[in-house]
Amino acid sequence: MFLLSFPSLIPLLRAGLDLDCAESWIEEKGRPLRDFLSEYSKAAVEQGKLRESDIDNALRNQYMTLMRLGYFDNIPRYASLNETDICTDEHRSLAHDGARQGIVLLKNDGNLLPLDPEKILAVAVHGPHARAPEKVMDGDYTGPPCRYVTPRQGISKHVKISHRANTTIYLGGINLHIEREGNDREDLLLPKNQTEEILHFAKASQNPIILVILSGGGIDVSFAHKHPKIGAILWAGYPGGEGGNAIADVIFGRYNPGGRLPLTWFKNKYIQQIPMTSMEFRPVPEKGYPGRTYKFYDGPEVLYPFGYGLSYTKFHYETSTDGTSVTLPATGGHCKGLSYKPSVATTPSCQAVDVAGHACTETVSFNISVINGGGRGGAHVVLVYTAPPPEVAQAPIKQVAAFRRVFVPATSTATVPFTLNVCKAFGIVERTAYTVVPSGVSKVLVENGDSSSSVSFPVKIDFSV
């Protein structure tokens, strides 16, 4: 919004943009623009380009919201709330468990993890995030936690920390000085000094080292993924105040990691494949742009795909569903056109149904059996994708339709039921910007975190006109 010029204020305010998020990173006359509306609305009124009634309307909307929330009511049960109500054992436990659930195991050569504290009595702990000062474990738009448990503190609860230990844990990554709103990264690499340090400790360590990364976005750690002396890699995101305990729980086996990446980790060369100024999600072949996100990217191999994540056990899938069909009514002009690949010779009379004008009550139901083939119980996230008919042009490769987290005891099986709404699960945003359900044979696809097991089945979608 701060990139907009002064004249854009008037239509924005009148269109209902009542609230400005304040602090700006843009400077004007040597000082930052702290508040776009405050900076420009007064001048707009003085110049006769904006009425006071327009400002009154924006303020009225905001104060009405505050009133509906009881902000001015001095409600005793809310007015008396303080830190003691927030920082309870229950809430700290919730923050702790949330951090554990979000940790993703990216590499675990030779089952290096988990470490057994009964056998490994001491570890060496290095890296800039080991002591994790305030705000290193926090993401953007977060309030202060009740306390900070650093990774070093969490690890010290399990084993002794010693520079002479044969096992090394390196905690690195980035922070909000490098990535946040208004502060875009220039590359996808770790800071150079960290890469050099990691390689130094890997070479010096008697055993393969463990790398723990704190970051919000993906980082190209190809050097670590391929390195034989870097045995395990964990991504902890920005785990919050209880992050140190959560990281230690995963490293020492108190918790079996079940997190899966919420975004694709591209290799650093991706920044040369597509400019930041390109807003296209779909590939642009004439310019050589490979597209964005797991839905559309068709370029060279990525480091870690969306949904990737290992476990201390092995999960496999089975399903008894080998295919199904569904018919949607398409009366009353609900049919829309569809973009087809040039090789498609004939197309149906009703190519797609407009989701916005349809009742969308049809569903597809199935069960997925999650089989734990290992000797350790663990939580597993079942990700269900749908893929549109292959003849549709510029459609998503696949898209998440549903997911469920389930705990499966060692050597056991859990049955996970799914019911997909056809419009929500199989609808795609067409090139015309309509959200439509395409006619033809779509596919349901379920892949585990390391792509070692998958099941799929076709779903034939017809329309009754």
TrEMBL record:
Cite the Pfam families for this sequence.
Fn3-like (PF14310), Glyco_hydro_3_C (PF01915)
Highest taxon of source: Eukaryota
**Where is the signal peptide, in residue numbers?**
1-15
Molecular function as annotated in GO: alpha-L-arabinofuranosidase activity; xylan 1,4-beta-xylosidase activity
Keyword line: Glycosidase, Hydrolase, Signal
For this entry, list what GO says about its biological process.
Answer: arabinan catabolic process; xylan catabolic process
Answer yes or no on keyword Ligase: no
Listed Gene3D superfamilies: Glycoside hydrolase family 3 C-terminal domain, Glycoside hydrolase, family 3, N-terminal domain, Immunoglobulins
Transmembrane portions of the chain: none
Residues forming the Fibronectin type III-like domain are 380-452
> Keyword Transferase: yes or no?
no
Would you tell me the protein name for this molecule? Fibronectin type III-like domain-containing protein
Q: What is the lineage of its organism?
A: Eukaryota, Viridiplantae, Streptophyta, Embryophyta, Tracheophyta
